[in-house]
Structure formats: C-alpha cells, structure tokens
Specification:
By secondary structure, the chain is mainly β. The chain contains no helices and 24 strands. Helices cover 0% and strands 53% of the residues.
Length: 272
C-alpha cells in the first residue's frame, strides 16, 4: 500500500525566516515511534539566542542540537520551533503515528470436525478497514495466513500457537498461547429425526481423525444400521434408508483398527 504524507509548512516572524527550518529522520510509523529532529539554520538574519521545540505530543525541548522524541500514541502531530521568542516555524501534521496491530486471538474446538480440529480467530484490529497480514505458526510445524483458521492437529497434546499480525506500513506484533487438544468420544442419549432442524441427527463427538465403527441394534438385537468413518452421524434410518420407529436402540462404537483407547456402548432414544 502506498502512503502519501501531506506536510503544511508555515512560518511567522521576521524576514529571512525561510532560511531556518527543521527536519525529522522519519515522519510516519507505528506507536512507539522514535523520531530525531534536526534544526537547520541556512542564514538567519540575526544571532539565534534561543530555540524552543514543541513536538505536538506534550513534550518540549530547547536548543539547536538534535532532539529525539518518542511518540507512543496514534495520531497526527504538528511540530514547531520558536526562535528568539518571537519567530515560529511550524509543520502541520508532520508526524503520523499508526496504531500497532492487535495480535490477540481466540480458539474453540469443533464438534462437527472433531476435537483435533480447532477454530482460531484473530481479535479485531484498531482500524478494520486496513488489510492487515496474518500468519499463524503452530508448534507441530503447521502454518496459516487467514484471519480465521480451522487447523487440525494430528494427536492429543499441548501445543504452542502463535499469531503474527503485520500492519501494511510494516510494523508487527505477535502473541503466543498454549492450546490443549484432547481426544474425545461422546454420544447423546436422545435425538429427534423429524426434519425440524433441531437435534435431527445422532452425532458422535470424536477427534475427527481416528476411524470408528458404529453398529446400532434394535431392542430385539437386530442390526439396523452400521457405518465406519472418523465422524459418525446417524439420521434414524436403517441400512435400506427407511425411517425407523420411535424407540430405544443400542449402539456399539469401536476403533476400526482395534487399537484405539476409546470405546462406547449405550442406549439411544429415538423420538419422531
């Protein structure tokens, strides 16, 4: 992105003032911007006995030597010097300071995609119309570059997740947090597949990675449904696609390879 800085230069006082001015080594940046100002006298018409600086941020100084000032809040700042108490040189909105990016972020696991899948969301930025750049860095080697990210970890554990946010002007900030990823295998005990959009499916909350085998039996022990997938969902129909009657059914869930640490057995009530 290209930035254009408009500087208004004004001076009041005695003739010959155009030969006196000052410069900054940088005029734009993010908060905590350090600026060094240099006084320049190219032929003032009378001896200079005093120079008083006003940096526009509440700070002042005296003298013709270089002045280094810290701007730690966002905004535009007018800088001026007063020469011999009666002549001033002013640069309006000379220093422009942008807010640093906000690197905070939030996360939550995803029931639909599994407990190993985590949804990451960067916090809102000070100015939401600026195209900030995002970079996610995960301890297991993964990365991402969008403000919202769904990231799948390979196994349970504690992982460091970091977010680096960069302002188009170039300033950057970063934060890191520990994310705990847990294995899971949880089942509801009732569902209502009546197409009202509420609790229509028997959804098994798992890690979304391990392959599981699901078997569902009627009260008389007849196998009415089976499936094998990392994410198990049953819509209340049998293997032929016919709707099953209201009642209590028995389910068994086991890892397909027989080596997983989770296994579930229990009853599920179906209401229509």
């Amino acid at each position: 992105m290209r930035y254009i800085i408009l500087i208004s230069f004004s001076c009041t006082g005695i003739p010959g003032l155009a030969q006196v001015t000052f410069f900054a080594d940088t005029t734009a940046g993010c908060d905590s911007l350090e600026v060094t100002f240099t006084y320049r006298d190219l032929g003032y018409p009378e001896p200079v006995t005093s120079v008083v600086w006003d940096f526009g941020n509440g700070e002042t100084a005296t003298g013709t030597g270089d002045q280094t000032v810290l701007y730690d809040t966002a905004g535009s700042f007018t800088v001026s010097i007063l020469i011999n108490g009666n002549t001033s040189v002013e640069r309006r909105d000379y220093i422009k300071v942008h807010s640093s990016p906000n690197p905070r972020f939030f996360w939550s696991d995803s029931l639909e995609l599994g407990s190993y899948s985590v949804v990451f969301l960067a916090a809102p930025q000070p100015i939401d119309t600026i195209p900030y750049t995002y970079r996610w860095i995960f301890e297991d080697g993964g990365e991402g570059d969008t403000r919202t990210l769904i990231y799948r970890f390979s196994e349970a554990g504690d992982y460091q997740a970091s977010l680096r946010v960069t302002h188009p002007f170039g300033c950057m900030d970063q934060s890191s947090r520990i994310v705990t990823v847990e294995d899971s295998l949880d089942c509801p005990n009732v569902f209502t597949p009546n197409n009202d959009g509420i609790n229509d499916y028997f959804i098994v909350s798992s890690n979304g990675v391990t392959q599981y085998n699901l078997q569902i039996f009627s009260r008389s022990g007849v196998l009415v449904y089976k499936a094998e997938a990392p994410t198990l969902i049953w819509d209340g129909r049998n293997l032929s696609g016919q709707e099953l009657h209201t009642g209590t059914y028995y389910y068994i869930i086991r890892p397909s390879d027989g080596r997983g640490s989770f296994e579930r057995k229990g009853f599920i009530k179906l209401f229509r």
